[in-house]
Amino acid sequence: MKTDSEFSPGATTSGSPATGGRPRARSFETGAPRRRRQSPVKLRKALYILEEFSLPLIYGPEEQRDIAKLVNILGPPLTRESIARDGALLADVELIFSGWGAPVMDEAFLAAAPKLRAVFYGAGSTGYFTTEAFWQRDIVVTSAAAANAVPVAEYTLAAILFSLKHFWSLAAHAKRGGSWFDPARQQLPGGYRSTVGLVGLGMIGRQVRERLRPFDVRVIAYDPVTTSTDVEIVSLDEVFRQADVVSLHAPNKTETHGMITGRHFESMKTGATFINTARGAIVREPEMIAVLRQRPDLTAVLDVVDPEPLPPNAPILALSNVIVTPHIAGALGPECRRMGRYMVEELHRYLDGQPLQWQITREAAAALA
Question: In the predicted model, what is the mean pLDDT of residues 253-267?
């Protein structure tokens, strides 16, 4: 029996009679082809699990909107505490969007989340929540560490350029009413043919190196595992001995704790500056303080200390040649949205079956700061 559409004026077929093409139905009102009913796409089931304050910082309205278009969010955002109280919420979850305050994904957590396939971590280090059980499950994890590295590299570049001009000491000098025509100003390194030393060529160290390219400075670096031929590699001792500014970007691992000693500071050039945006524990602070007391020509710019925050009576706070900032080099305010955006982009790649740009492997996790 013929259908009504076959008798409709202007009805056509989507194939030829020779190939068995069937007539293509058209709308009675407009004559336009009707769209065939599509089977609904089965969306992956997901949850947000992170500190309450982290969610709006990392995943703003635009990021949450874009994620909601691609996955089925099973419920309201959760924290590590709330998910610990009710693990049943994990039973159907396939994807987790997280950030600062991610839950430790140990055997108990993973047993409650048998369908978990991927974790999108909108922050830096994943080491504190990934476990042996996590890696054995072969769950995909991707991190926004590269996005968090951007503001750290920007902070470091600014600190390096200021340091080459002896900004910190000369600003204090001017505020005290010091001479504006002090001949000592002609002895500062400046931004022409001076030397910048980088300790560590990980994600942040490499970004700092890239940002220094437009400037007329020599860049040297120490990194025991790098294979880069893009920068002059020297020993750790030589970085401190040769550089006008030394910037620390070593990973925060047991073997790096205390690797920067008083001897390194003693060997620094007159008027040199040390910048730390890595971790305070990498430096032997009492030894550094002792040298800075003896060498007021040196300057230390510390965005990280140990412990954090410092007690009000910490000896380092009394030194006039030490600049302390409260761990502000990393992503703050709107900068955090860059990390959420990286995770949206990774989600697109994951769902499209493409390689993830920022996936963290087990081997990489062991090397990350």
Answer: 96
94 is catalytic: no
Question: Is 308 annotated in the active site?
Answer: yes
At residue 190 the predicted structure's pLDDT band, cuts being 50, 70 and 90, is very high
Predicted local distance difference test score (pLDDT) of residue 35: 42
Per-residue pLDDT of 28-50, as tens digits, reads 334 444 444 444 457 999 999 99
Contacts of 199 (CB under 8 A, 6+ apart): 205, 221, 222, 223, 236, 239, 246, 247, 248, 249, 250, 260
pTM (2 d.p.): 0.83
Question: Using CA atoms, how far apart are residues 13 and 28, in angstroms rounded to an integer?
Answer: 16
279 is catalytic: yes
Q: Which of 52, 308, 348, 362 is catalytic?
A: 308
Which residue segments constitute the domains of the chain, with CATH numbers given? 1-36 (no CATH), 44-143+336-360 (3.40.50.720), 148-324 (3.40.50.720)
Of the listed 185, 257, 295, 327, which one is catalytic? 327
